[in-house]
Structure formats: C-alpha cells, structure tokens
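Table S2 (continued). Query chain:
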Amino acid sequence: AAQQIPSPELIINLVSRRVRQLAQGARPLTLTDPKMDFADIALKEISEGKVTYELPTAEELEAARKN
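Corresponding output:
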C-alpha cells in the first residue's frame, strides 16, 4: 500500500474508511482468503490499485469552510 500511496496518514484514512464499508456489507474488490480480516482486505485492495483517493481542490476546501 505504501508504494501506491506515499503518505501513512492517507493510508490510515483509506483503510479505516474501507474497513467500515466492508463491515457494513460491501463486497471485496479482490480475491480474499478466509483468514483475512477487513484491514488485510483493504490493504490488499489499495496495494492492487483498486481503492484510490482524490484530494479536494482549493475551491472545494473553501466551499466546505463556508458551510
């Protein structure tokens, strides 16, 4: 996952969000094995490039601050 996303903070946030989605019933985007927990699945998805992120633009950040 660190090869796909250089920031440890972003990896933590992505894994956390994806674990929540998986716990709520989302299907894995990759092949899994029964021994894998949700965090393992999320990290594998990230390392395979199946889960990505997009940083907000300056305009989006400004609009969020106004709300």
